[in-house]
Every structure is written in C-alpha cells, then in structure tokens.
C-alpha cells in the first residue's frame, strides 16, 4: 500500500511557502521508515522530511519546486 | 523472486561532514568540536547539525566571538593530546587568529623537535556567488597552501567531504578543511546538485594528497578544486557538444599537492586549463602550471590557461560579482583561445 510523503502541517508556523532544497534519495530507491529523504527550506531554515514507511520512493515534486505545508511531495510504494 | 533495488543514500556536504565528525566522536573520546554557533544551531552552514544533541555541551562547545582565543585554545588542547575540530566560520576571518594558525599550529611540531603533534582540524567556509561581499566570499586557497606545516583539503562533493573529514580527524598533523558555501547544500547559499551524491553509512577515508579524475578525456585537462570542479564539468559538457573531449581533475587536496596526477593527464592531452575561485596572482593556478612546466614543457601543445578570480576585492553588487567569478563559459573560451 502506498504511503504519501507529506510536508507536515506543523513544521513551521507562518503561512509562507518553502522550497525543496534536495532529495536525499532517488526515484525507485529503497528507503527505511525514518530515513531522511528530502530537505526543505523555509526562509533560510532547513527541515528534514522523513520516510513515513519502508519501501520504494516515487518523487512527485522535484528539487527547487515551491511547496506549502501539507503538500504531498512523494510516495513510498 | 528477486528484485534489484538501488539503495541510494544521498547527502549534502553539510550532512556528510556532520556524519563524519559524529562517527569519529563515537569511537575516539579525544575528538571534540568548538566554534561559533556550532552547538544548538548546528553551524550556520549545517555541518555540525545533530552533534550537540548527541554529545552535549562538553564535547560540542559554542564559543564567544573570539577566534584568537578559541583557535589558540584548540592548538593548546591538541598539543595536550586532544583532537579538536574547530570551526572558523568564514575563512575571511583568518586575520584575527593567524598567529595561532601559522606560528603555533603549523610550527609547534617542528619547534618541539617532533615531540608534539598538533592534530587540529580547522574547518572553514569559503567561496562566494551569493552577494556577501569582500569579507565573506573569499577562498584564500593559496594563503593556507603556501604556508608549510599544515595539510589543506577541500571537497567538491559529499562522498569526498565525509572521507576527507575522517582522514583529517585521524591525521596527526594540523589539517585545514575548506568547504565551499555554494556546495554545502544550504539552499539560501545556492545549491550545486552535483555535490549531493551517494554516501556510504559506514566510516571510510579518502586519502589526503590524492587528486581524482572525475571525467576522462583526450584533448584538454581541466584542473579545479571545490566550485572549480563543477564549472569544469559543465564546461566539459559544452565542449563535448563541439566535439572536444575534456578530462577533469578534482585536486581534492592542496597540501600535499598531487602533481603527478595532473602531469600524467597533461602528458596525455597536451593542454591544460586551471580553474580556481581564489585570486589569480601568486595562486593555485600558477602553482599547477609551474608544476607541469617544470616536469616537461615539451608535452604542452599550447600555453596553459588560467580561469581564476581577478585580483580585486570581491564586489557586493550581484552583476559585478558574477562578472568576476569563474564560470563554464570562461573555461570554454579559454579552450577556444588555445586552439585558435
């Protein structure tokens, strides 16, 4: 069953956009639950995005894309 | 049923540095970290993230803004048997602590007749491109590489960043570890995607003093370090479109300098371009060219070329800074001027 990789709604407080700095894995790679899969940046502050499950990564939003809280940026299959 | 799955574990240079330091701290109680904002903040360039939480304030020590004091303290601690990893936040700030660096750290092993070793790792951020002006954007490669008594390393990607950091911490000599801000993977400084590469989880070393051929070619050798390697790789792609096969060498270390590696490549290609974000005159570019010319001038088909920072303080204005920085187009133009 696929699990979405979501930017947590409570990761930062203000209603501002962020950006994906880098994916630390790649399309189709296998990850463990809790691995850091991406870094995002909001106003010079960086946050880790963790794998919500074990499985293979599908990337839905690429590095440099603008994101908002709650966005689905990828999926674990 | 077998399925082949890649297990890619990419890291930014910032993460790779922090992981290397953490792994050495776990196995060697003599290793500790000092510097400005390297504790709870995790370093302004991210390279000590997670260390304070794991090792606490005794081994991950935030210091007051006095490089004179805390780099001097690191040199003393090293002489007394510790293995400090100390951060000079921007290499541009070296002025206030240079006595500790080049009169004490670099020389005390010699002055003690070999009785003392000074195993300091001094890590410091280099480079510009993001309009931080003349006191926060320099590389100063040659300033440190020129002074005997210290090793000098500078990674262009996360794999080398981890391996060189572990080598530096285990080395009994002082090591200057230069990391370029634009390769660090901190979005606001500009991020070079090619610096974010697979990094094994286990500890490993990359030897200090060994260059690497990062792209093979026949027609010209392009030598660089940190940002220069990425400019060279992009230039090599553009040259390939024109039917030119460029070899790219990443020096990785400035001291010791792997002259043999460069000479062997130029023996094959017959042409040499050296790229450096440090100032041109009296710099790394001239040293590389001199090393090749001294070895055998007859292997050069044309005079070598330099693509380096002009001899001016770094401008704040974005158009002016971008004009001054090395870039792939300047490397391609240098090649074209060689074969005209």
What are its keywords?
heterodimer; A: about 80 residues; mainly beta; OB fold (Dihydrolipoamide Acetyltransferase, E2P); 8 strands; B: about 350 residues; alpha/beta; Rossmann fold; seven-stranded mixed beta sheet
Q: What CATH architecture of chain A do you see?
A: Beta Barrel
How is the quaternary structure best described? heterodimer
Order of helices and strands of chain A: EEEEEEEE
Order of the strands making up the biggest sheet of chain A: 1-8-6-3
Q: Summarize the main sheet of chain B.
A: 7 strands, mixed
* Most extensive chain interface and residues per partner: A-B, 18 and 17 residues
Q: Biggest β-sheet of chain A: count, sense, barrel?
A: 4 strands, antiparallel
Roughly what is the average pLDDT of chain A, rounded to an integer? 92
Distance between the termini of chain A: 6 Å
Taken together, the total number of domains of chain A comes to 1
**Envelope shape of chain B:** globular
The CATH topology of the largest domain in chain B: Rossmann fold
Order of helices and strands of chain B: EHEHEHEHHEHEHEEEEHEEHEHEHH
**Ends of chain B: how far apart?**
59 Å
In the CATH scheme, the class of chain A would be Mainly Beta
- How many discrete structural domains of chain B? 2
Q: Detail the poorly predicted runs of chain B.
A: none
Helix content range of chain B? 25-40%
Task: Write down the Rg of chain B.
Answer: 20 Å
- Number of E-state strands of chain A: 8
